[in-house]
Design goal:
Helix content: 25-40%
Strand content: 15-25%
Largest sheet: 4 strands, parallel
Mean pLDDT: 93
Radius of gyration: 35 Å
Structural class: alpha+beta
CATH class of the domain at 227-417: Alpha Beta
Distance between the termini: 69 Å
């Protein structure tokens, strides 16, 4: 009676055996080469979703494959455990965030184990554990001591729903990335990391990352936003102050007819004349209530108000009026922008609206432009006019000369500017790593000494649905003593952005129980950089940029020896259903637990790996899952049906085999080559699985259509064992079970990857093309080693060819070995 493929019993059996035998425990030091494979660790939200399943299945294939290729593979798993959802759960359900998080971790760990992940669970940690955030706090202090962590007052993005500040990167189309609530602008004292000090290195070192997707590098390049130009000073009439602007177009300086300031700029109120103060105050209040998107969107009306003040153009000495404008942002550039209406469309529209002059300074060839009558701004090239000594020069060639002229007069300088802003890390929330700072009336801002770390986050807290952090209401947390003078002090009640925790976790996996520091330098030297990092492209300008910044800082501090954390990056596509991203609101969610229960882990893994290349979006298909399940059943039936025949066969077939036995061996070794290349060179798991499926078809043909007397059992044994080795990274449970049934005492996951024999790849017969006067007329099959003379003889002997050349004179026969024969006739 045929034995059923009982996946649930098989999977339970091998999970226990892998754990008992420590199959996935990796030593820190050995003679084998290292390979660090890491998927972005998850937030413990409660249950895995199909995006998780795909991400971790991809990483698991890479880790298993590299292990079989002879590497010591570090493949850890942990939990990015701080964050807002835990607080929201506490408010909604009355469950303390710590308990909610721990319960979710337990659930998700069990699910990951069901999936058959090859993780070294001894290295597991959660970022909310004091043993981890102790070192998060220590790293904050290293940045603080180097002047890279500072507190400053700045306009911030405030989410009224989450009651916290958001980094610029966490605001998407003017809404909170997490809860989608419209973001407000507020001015608060906040902690920042000076990531801008590393802007140029972060930009230039993208060239050192050939293993990263080009789209991710472009996203980071655009976010850093390097611009070369000039900073120009405009003295303010009647004040001992000046307006500084940054421009990439100093060639248009002669065309400045007004200046604008951001409504948040401190100059606004200092330059406004008394008689215009009330109108200006009202305008500023109105502009500040607009979102950043509204203020900068092309279709939104650009408004301004005259302050009554003037500044002086340093190039020509003209006085130009100073306006406050709603489209100028304090966060970009200097918060001041020069208005050149003849050569910038936004400035042109603003000037026409408020009756300001439009002065042409770049004349194109042909009909001269007139500022009074031109219908729109001219933004093309030309020669300078109305620019003094620079008249007649091609405008772009004059940029450097004008800047040098200003520099000589102390009115300007060459400057490089970046769009990147310092990383705001303060959060007015509870469930995060406390910032290790105290405030003393006598000593000021005082860092907590290393010996007093971690600053523990109280876990027994009461949550009220106010959005306010309960830390501010806990006297036992707030009130402390100053580490410097011993006097009364109060703790910082802001916590750190959770991206702080995930910016260094890949170092901690190398030595997760290290107590004397955040990691062992010897172990970090052994394992870093991460060889293959896997996660979503949505982290391109958040986690990935922050991690690169952190690694560069740690390198400068002598704490690590690498300057980039991730050598290769794979950004996997989303899992879609009915053409849309899975979500509860759309009602198109597929539960991994349901699929695991119905089909097993191997089928689930196989489908998400087979249905699409890893970097492409995957469309969920119930039929596709069924197809993968049928394939694994087919493998099961095939292998179990031939076990009796192959168990006594020698492990290697003899070399002299011909005919069907050699053909079967050729298919086996062609498949080994194909699967190896698809995984190693391209991470094309879908085509690798397809090759394995074709091999199974060939094995069925060999078993069912070749008489037993003609089949060499060693050929089938070789095919079965190589097939199982090839499937081991994709379907680890089934492979290990069938491997054991083939008579092997050790796990298949401790076996080396199969090698192919190049001699067996050569086809016995090949197809060649027959041409007459260069046109294809036929195709014939010939022995692979046929000589040119034999090719000619064979082709001319074909009845179809004889018919085609009948009555014609054959002038020449041109054989191209292994490819074609061309007959030239007249």
């Amino acid at each position: 009676m045929e034995e059923k493929y009982a996946f649930s019993e098989i999977e339970e059996k091998w999970r226990g055996r892998w754990e008992r035998d420590g199959v996935y425990h990796v030593p820190d030091f050995s003679d084998r080469p290292k390979y660090y494979c890491l998927e972005m660790f998850p937030y413990p939200s409660g249950h895995l979703h199909m995006g998780h399943v795909r991400n971790y299945a991809i990483g698991d294939v890479v880790a298993r494959f590299k292990t079989m290729r002879g590497y010591d593979v570090l493949h850890p798993m942990g939990w990015d455990a701080f964050g807002l959802p835990a607080e929201n759960a506490a408010i909604q359900h009355g469950v303390p965030p710590a308990r909610w998080t721990r319960d979710n971790i337990n659930t998700m760990r069990d699910q990951l184990k069901l999936m058959g992940g090859s993780y070294d669970w001894r290295r597991e940690f959660a970022t909310c554990h004091p043993g981890y955030y102790r070192w998060t706090q220590w790293l904050f202090l290293q940045l603080y001591y180097q002047g890279l962590a500072y507190k400053g007052k700045a306009p911030v993005n405030w989410c009224p729903s989450c009651a916290t500040v958001l980094a610029n990167e966490q605001v998407v189309t003017e809404a909170c990335e997490r809860c989608k609530t419209a973001v407000e602008r507020r001015e608060l004292e906040q902690w920042f990391f000076r990531i801008t000090a590393y802007a140029e290195r972060l930009l230039q070192d993208l060239k050192k990352l050939p293993g990263w997707p080009e789209k991710v590098k472009v996203m980071q390049e655009n976010w850093i936003g390097r611009s070369e130009g000039a900073e120009i000073s405009f003295p303010i009439r009647g004040l001992d102050e000046e307006m500084r602007v940054f421009t990439t177009r100093p060639d248009t300086l002669g065309g400045v007819t007004y200046m604008t300031i951001a409504p948040e700029h401190p100059l606004c109120l200092r330059v406004t004349v008394p008689e215009r103060r009330s109108e200006v105050d009202a305008f500023i209040a109105r502009a500040r209530n607009l979102s950043e998107l509204d203020r900068t969107a092309g279709e939104h009306e650009k408004e301004g108000i005259f302050t009554g003040a003037y500044c002086v153009n340093p190039l020509n000495g003209e006085e130009v009026p100073i306006f406050i404008a709603n489209y100028v942002l304090m966060e970009y550039g200097t918060g001041c922008v020069m208005g050149v209406p003849a050569h910038d469309q936004r400035d042109f529209e603003f000037a026409r609206k408020y009756g300001l002059p439009v002065r042409v300074v770049i004349q194109p060839d042909g009909e001269p432009l007139d500022g009074d009558t031109m219908p729109e701004a001219y933004t093309g090239p030309g020669r300078l006019v109305n620019t003094g000594d620079f008249n007649g020069l091609p405008n772009l060639e004059a940029i450097a000369g004008i800047t040098r002229h200003l520099e000589a007069r102390g009115a300007g300088r060459f400057q490089v500017q970046y769009r990147l802003r310092d990383w705001l890390i303060s959060r007015q929330r509870y469930w995060g790593a406390p910032i290790p700072i105290v405030y003393c009336d006598g000593c000021g801002t005082v860092p907590v000494p290393k010996a007093e770390l971690p600053v523990l986050l109280p876990e027994d807290v009461a949550f009220q649905p106010t959005g306010k952090s309960p830390l501010t209401e806990l006297p036992e947390f707030v009130h402390t003593t100053c580490p410097t003078c011993g006097g009364q002090a109060r703790r910082e009640t802001d916590t750190m952005d959770t991206f702080m925790c995930s910016s260094w976790y890949y170092f901690r996996f190398t030595s997760p129980r290290e107590d004397g520091g955040p990691w062992s330098l010897a172990r970090v030297d052994r394992w870093l950089p991460v060889d293959q990092y896997i996660g979503g492209v949505e982290h391109a300008i958040l986690h990935l940029l922050y991690s690169r910044f952190f690694t560069k800082f740690l390198y400068d501090a002598g704490l690590v020896k690498v300057q980039e954390p991730f050598t290769n990056l794979l950004t996997q596509g989303m899992v879609l259903k009915d053409g849309a991203k899975m979500s509860k609101s759309k009602g198109n969610v597929v539960s991994p637990e349901e699929i695991l229960g119905r089909y097993g882990a191997d089928t689930t893994r196989l489908f998400v790996l087979f249905a699409a290349p890893p970097e492409r979006d995957l469309e969920w298909s119930d039929q596709g899952v069924e197809g993968c399940y049928r394939f694994l059943q087919r493998v099961w039936r095939l292998v179990t049906s031939v076990l009796e025949d192959i168990q006594e066969a020698p492990p290697r077939p003899p070399d002299h085999l011909v005919g069907v036995n050699r053909s079967m061996r050729r298919l086996t070794h062609q498949t080994i080559k194909k699967v190896t290349g698809d995984i190693e060179a391209r991470l094309n798991f879908n085509t690798a699985i397809s090759a394995a499926m074709e091999m199974v078809n060939g094995m069925h043909h060999f078993r069912d259509r070749v008489p037993a007397v003609n089949r060499d059992p060693a050929v089938m044994r070789e095919a079965v064992e190589k097939l199982l080795l090839l499937l081991a990274p994709f379907a680890p449970y089934l492979s290990d079970e069938l491997w054991a049934r083939c008579g092997h005492a050790t796990s298949i996951h401790r076996e080396p990857w199969p090698e192919y024999d190049p001699e067996l790849l050569v086809e016995d017969r090949i197809e060649i093309v027959v041409q007459i006067n260069g046109r294809v007329r036929d195709r014939i099959t010939v022995p692979s080693g046929i000589t040119p003379a034999e090719m000619e003889e064979t082709v001319l002997a074909q009845s179809r060819i004889r018919e085609l050349v009948a009555g014609k004179e054959i002038k020449k026969v041109i054989p191209v070995p292994g490819k074609l024969v061309n007959i030239v006739v007249r």
